[in-house]
Amino acid sequence: MTIIHLSWPDSCLLPNNQRGKKLFNASVIKNHRREARMTMASTIGRGDHRAYKLRDNMYTCRIRFHPPDRRRRDLGNMFSACKAYIDGVADALGIDDYQIVTFVIERGIWVSRGDVEIEI
Known about the structure:
Elements: E1 3-6, H1 22-44, H2 49-54, E2 59-66, H3 75-81, H4 83-93, E3 100-107, E4 115-119
Helix pairs in contact: 1-4
């Protein structure tokens, strides 16, 4: 299992916050995907992603959200905002995100700038 910590997703990625801003979302999505890919790649090291390919074809992903403040947030909304993160992690591991068949979503304690912890 590998655990990475990523920044809190941009508010424009929240599905309940969409108001015709899809043009601006493309660059944000690209940046979030790149952040997840680079963080996972540096965590597992060069060449270690092959070990993931040789294992079973099904994976479990645990996502724990540590919000940046004490506002009440919907877990489904936060999960949707992290789609780019999941794609980036899958890219780094050399797998298709379709192979992640189980997601465990948890709400953690708040931290000052927010944090998303992904374990696969």
